[in-house]
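Progress note, sequence design subtask.
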């Protein structure tokens, strides 16, 4: 079985968000996929099998299977459109979040994702203790989003991972308006066995939607301010969907020799 390591939301190796992509003829057991995800110890390992209706895609963190992952979808489309169907400019994946379509547009891979209703929730003392800074606002969609006053707070933040485990939300995202982009963000997910997700595409289904409403615009240029860093181009489509685009680059190709 071939496994590809692809850095997503970047055009430079060793930046952006790395994902492992495994292209298989048939499905191994869930236990085997979970073990390989733990062995890789990346925020996501993607598993792909071609079926009658196209490609079936699943995502595993080192802790569990998840229902949506942006950077591993981008990495998966990069692999399929460059090494399996290089004549194509579109790939469709069947996933736990329904059918996801990715189009190749020059150097960008544009993903068509769902948006989520955002509801403002109270900012609690527990949230302030976990992040070390009190946010000016908090909203909940699929995940928690805490809005802070400035970019410097986002970049310097070192949250308490144990305290994050007690806060509502599978992933805790922090964001502010940016100096050189519309917004800057970071994503923390200890509940998924991920201390910090370097560049989280699915989080921007909510983050970009929030800033589009605040800024009164449909296109959002976003930067994820992790140590690796990455850029996301987001466009609200007006039908409960969002287009999230980014670049990707191949880092490694390997053969998995252990029996799954």
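Output:
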């Amino acid at each position: 079985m071939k496994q590809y390591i692809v850095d997503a939301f970047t055009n430079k190796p060793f930046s952006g968000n790395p994902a492992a992509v495994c292209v298989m003829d048939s499905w191994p057991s869930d236990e085997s996929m979970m073990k390989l995800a733990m062995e890789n110890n990346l925020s996501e390992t993607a598993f792909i099998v071609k079926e009658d209706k196209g490609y079936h895609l699943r995502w595993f963190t080192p802790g569990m299977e998840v229902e949506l992952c942006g950077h591993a979808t981008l990495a998966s489309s990069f692999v399929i459109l460059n090494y399996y169907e290089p004549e194509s400019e579109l790939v469709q994946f069947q996933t736990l979040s329904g059918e996801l379509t990715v189009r190749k547009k020059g150097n960008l891979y544009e993903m068509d994702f769902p948006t989520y209703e955002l509801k403002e929730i109270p900012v609690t003392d527990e949230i302030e203790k976990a992040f070390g800074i009190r946010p000016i606002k908090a909203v909940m969609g699929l995940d928690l989003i805490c809005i802070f006053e400035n970019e410097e707070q986002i970049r310097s933040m070192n949250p308490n991972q144990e305290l994050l485990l007690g806060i509502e939300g599978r992933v805790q995202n922090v964001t502010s308006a940016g100096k050189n982009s519309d917004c800057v963000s970071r994503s923390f997910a200890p509940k998924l066995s991920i201390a910090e997700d370097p560049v989280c595409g699915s989080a921007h289904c909510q983050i970009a939607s929030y800033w589009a409403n605040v800024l009164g615009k449909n296109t959002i240029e976003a930067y994820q301010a992790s140590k690796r860093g990455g850029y996301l181009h987001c466009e609200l489509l007006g039908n409960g969907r969002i287009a999230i685009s980014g670049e990707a680059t191949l880092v490694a190709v390997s053969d998995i020799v252990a029996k799954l």
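The chain has two domains: 2-104+246-255, 119-239. Work on this subtask will continue into the next period as scheduled.
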